[in-house]
Amino acid sequence: MLAPVCRLASKCGEALKLLETSNASASATVERALLSALAKCPAGHKAAILALHRDMRTMYIHAYQSLVFNSIVSGRKKTFGLAVLAGDLDAAGDVLTDANATIDRVCLPLPSVADTKMPQNEIAQCYEEIAASTPFKVPNLPSLK
To answer: Any transmembrane segments, and where (predicted)?
Structure first.
């Protein structure tokens, strides 16, 4: 059971040594931090992420949020066009009504915390499908900041 973990630690240590001797060593701070943490604790993926500077972790979280958001917007446009759906939200998180429902008022949330208000329509299912297909879980994102 420990053999794969030891092999990973050895490979991380070897990669770290190669990194230190390469020309990229000075600019590879992210790689160095990740490899150092994984060499010490190969199963500590969260610890490796937490070894990064907070600004860098935040950038990775934002990149994930952007990936999810762009996937949702693209899928929505492809499936529903510019139609406003029952249950769509505005910028304040309120459900749009027929009286004020125009596509330029529709806002889609960024996944950030477990209690992020989601639209009450087919789009909420899209968020759930994307979340289920990735190793990241929305309630865990704040703990990485």
So the answer is: none
Q: What is the pLDDT of residues 38-74, one digit of tens each?
A: 888 777 778 888 888 889 888 888 888 898 899 999 9
Q: Token pair of 114, please?
A: 């477990």
pLDDT tens-digit series, residues 86-122: 999 999 999 998 777 899 999 998 877 767 888 999 9
Exposed/middle/buried for 41, CB within 10 Å: 0-12, 13-18, 19+?
A: middle
d(C-alpha 138, C-alpha 77), whole Å: 24
Question: Per-domain residue ranges for the chain?
Answer: 1-52, 54-145
Enter the tokens of residue 121.
Answer: 């329509």
Vertex 60: Cα angle to 17 and 8 (nearest 5): 35
DSSP per-residue string spanning 26-83 = GG-HHHHHHHHHHHH-TT-HHHHHHTS-HHHHHHHHHHHHHHHHHHHHHHHHHHHTTP
Kindly report the number of other CB atoms within 10 A of residue 80's CB atom: 14
